[in-house]
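Protein modeling request. Please complete all fields; requests missing the sequence field cannot be processed.
Requester role: graduate student
Desired output: 3D structure, token encoding
Chains: 1
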Amino acid sequence: MTLVQSRSDRGQTLPIYIWLTGILLFSAVAFFVFAQAASARNGAQSAADAAALAAAQDTRDELMARLEGAIGHDDDWLDWLDGDQEVPGAGAAAAAQQLAGENDSTLQGMQFVRRNGYPGFQADIQTNYTVGESIIPGTEGMQAKAHAIAVIQPRCDFDPAADADKPVELDCDGEIVDIDPGHFDPDDLPDASVLFSVHLAE
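Delivered output (202 residues):
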């Protein structure tokens, strides 16, 4: 009687074992597909971040060139330091596309935006690569998309009553920069990163 019960127990255990094994295998495959998708998303976000930063940095360089030309010639040159002027951004899209390409992605769109009062750019990208083949149909053709925003933030404070035609002292996060519009030399300007920071928006 005991032998018959033992064989019966083994017969009932086998389907449960097969069922549990199937669940474990499915879970492992699902986790792998999720990891593939997460990797693609992370790659897309990195490409978008790089593209947006490239656009903002290129525009910061253009902004510096405009500032150099304005000091001593335009009475509103101090407005450039406040971020009140419309940023040029002529080469922003090209710079963003280059960085997107270096990250195996394509720039889908670029637009000027303002975040917290600061001018910046939003880059929308799509990866050139796909999530990859899996047991889930369609993943082999799925491409990841992402967007990022980078802003140009002025770093210098000055007396609001400062006369644009007279010497002005700038306090750029603790670094003092003196500019005399009447005897201005472009070499008097520090590196662009001293006057403006470029960073990803929250």
